[in-house]
Design goal:
alpha/beta, nine-stranded mixed β-sheet, 321 residues, 13 strands, 37% helix, two-stranded antiparallel ribbon
Length: 321
């Protein structure tokens, strides 16, 4: 049986109201203790963490508390990676506090501005952590036509920005609806998509859609096929404790194992470790349930035959061997 590998990716970022737009002034990071407790729990169960950090996180007292706590584990249980939120990352073109939805996706910026913002962030991470990051995750999964050449120019070797089977074009973002979860390389950059699966009560349809996501995308565009899809309970699920149960995360993994997918990303946003900061965790009970879901999934994944937890860079190094 091929080895199954799980990368746990945390989008380490500032706190903001997800329903109120994008503002440069939203820079608070008050959830550092909660995040440390969650990462310690993950490591305690045998997991590893790729911590993809944006500018407010890296430059804040709270974010630096987390960095300093795990600095001696870099490259072992924790990897410091990069996460670009362009609306809170200098340089800025205007003095406006708010940023349009279109420009919240880094790939929609001009090539020079996208480069300069990522250069500033990369150098800030290197200065703060003592390591130059090699793994990139665009904010809002927002890679664009210039992103590949930019990250390659800045020394990045792995990109985690693709979100399998997802289409953000309705809000001026990228369209990944025809991408599967399979790792691939392009122009010396390795891409590992964030994991999603298309589930159905009919196994052969589920397997076919996970191998051929373009047909799932076409079904969403046709009213008759959408009705058929509802009858077949055809739906896309993300491998994440945000909005998904342990049972659903297990179903995602099992369905992809059936189509010979054996590399996975489980992801969540760092503010979800504290109540009231994201739509997924409104109360302390929600936080406890959130952490229990993560624990259950990690323990279950660890029981899969020939399974292993890795940071993103381990996959890259192993691919070169």
């Amino acid at each position: 049986m091929p080895e199954s590998k799980l990368v746990i990716v945390i989008h380490a970022e500032e706190e903001f109201d997800w329903n109120s737009g994008f503002y440069r002034s939203n820079r608070n990071v008050t959830h550092s203790d909660n995040l440390i407790a969650t990462i310690d729990q993950i490591i305690g169960f045998g997991g590893k963490v790729t911590l993809a950090m944006d500018y407010p996180f890296v430059t804040s007292e709270g974010g630096q508390t987390v960095i300093n706590y795990y600095k001696n584990q870099h490259g072992k249980n924790v990897e410091f990676a990069t996460h670009l939120h362009p609306w809170v990352n200098p340089p800025y073109e205007t003095n406006d506090d708010s940023v349009s939805n279109e420009l919240s996706y880094p790939g929609n910026l001009s090539e020079e501005l996208e480069y300069q913002k990522l250069k500033v962030l990369t150098e800030e991470i290197e200065k703060t952590c003592g390591f130059r990051p090699k793994t990139y995750l665009a904010g809002r999964y927002g890679i664009g036509k210039n992103t590949q050449s930019i990250i390659k120019r800045l020394g990045y070797e792995m990109d985690l920005s693709i979100s399998a089977y997802c289409d953000f074009s309705h809000q001026q973002g990228p369209d990944f609806s025809n991408f599967t979860n399979t790792r691939f390389q392009r122009n010396q950059v390795t891409y590992l998509p964030h994991t999603s699966a298309i589930l159905s009560v009919v196994p052969w349809i589920r397997n076919y859609m996970n191998r051929n996501p373009e047909y799932f995308s076409l079904m969403q565009e046709n009213k008759v096929f959408r009705i058929i899809g509802k009858f077949l309970r055809l739906k896309r699920y993300r491998l994440s404790p945000e909005g998904f149960t342990f049972r659903q995360m297990k179903q995602v993994t099992e369905s992809l194992l059936k189509v010979e997918q054996n590399e996975f990303i489980m992801s969540f946003h760092s503010p979800s470790t504290k109540q009231g900061l994201t739509p997924y965790v409104s109360s302390l009970d929600d936080v406890n349930h959130f952490r229990e879901t993560i624990s259950e999934y990690i323990k279950w994944f660890n029981e899969i035959e020939n399974s292993r937890f890795v940071i993103a860079q381990e996959l890259l190094k192993e691919g070169r061997q």
